[in-house]
Amino acid sequence: MTEQTPLPVRAGSAVTSHVRGAGLGLRRALLEPLADLSASSDGIGFLEVAPENWMGIGGRLGRQFRAYTERFAFVTHGLSLSIGSPAPLDEAFVHDLKRFLDLHGIADYTEHLTFCSDDGHLYDLMPIPFTEEAVEHVAARVRRVQDILERRIALENASYYAAPGQRMSELEFIGAVIERSDCDLLLDVNNIWVNSINHRYDPLAFLEALPLERVRYIHVAGHYQEAEDLRVDTHGADVIDPVWSLLARAYGRLGAVPTLLERDFNIPPLAELMKEIAHIHRLQEPQLERSRSRRAAA
Known about the structure:
The protein is an alpha/beta fold. It has one domain (22-297): TIM Barrel, CATH 3.20.20. It is built from 8 helices and 12 strands. It has helices spanning 59-71, 91-104, 132-149, 170-181, 189-198, 203-209, 241-254, 270-297; strands at residues 22-25, 46-49, 73-77, 108-112, 115-117, 121-126, 154-156, 184-188, 215-221, 224-227, 230-232, 259-262. The protein starts with 21 loop residues before the first strand and ends with a helix.
């Protein structure tokens, strides 16, 4: 496995992040196939889980999960924080989440810049209106979450299919939330590509205009082409070439930022996923070589 660059430590972070390289989303279907792999020899630098799927799980599955967190570095990517919800923040959930992260020694918690609940859960990730009022609402909630977790979190630029009540651009909204929350960005390059088709903008220009200095790590995934002008963010297919190119462009700006391959369904044999993990490493390698050359010349 090649040398990798660890995540940056930022002022105010209570926990130093330690993931590096290329990561894979840990799904229950992969528990057995991954059992014989190791982070040091097989190219997987870290694993990612939705904490809601593992909090409070005991018995055989709980023991299996604990064995993985003892072998691999982990990050978490939440599904139910509902950071933009009009309903009160579920602080009991956030306290439970902190106990889970502390128990397993996990530094990084990320969430979608969306909402998924009001009086009850909607079981989907809904777009937050791009407004100044929403910015202030979300920023206050993020600051409270960070206070409870004693961790700086990262929010993901989300895919969306409608923009109700929009009074700001998507870029303005993301930038304002990140700045006023004093949180980081989970950069999803597939979501940029999907949104660029659905909302007709230049994905490279969008990438360049994001607050890239706040990127914690990167997501890359596949999607479904519903029509020539409609993409659906499914995480159920191989990554396509334009998304790989966008990832390479991100590395050109940021260096070899740790990158997570998402695959949520239509999960192929592990050997097929490992081919995409290997491609992430190939795209990271030129930046790592530049870093090694600079250190050698210093």
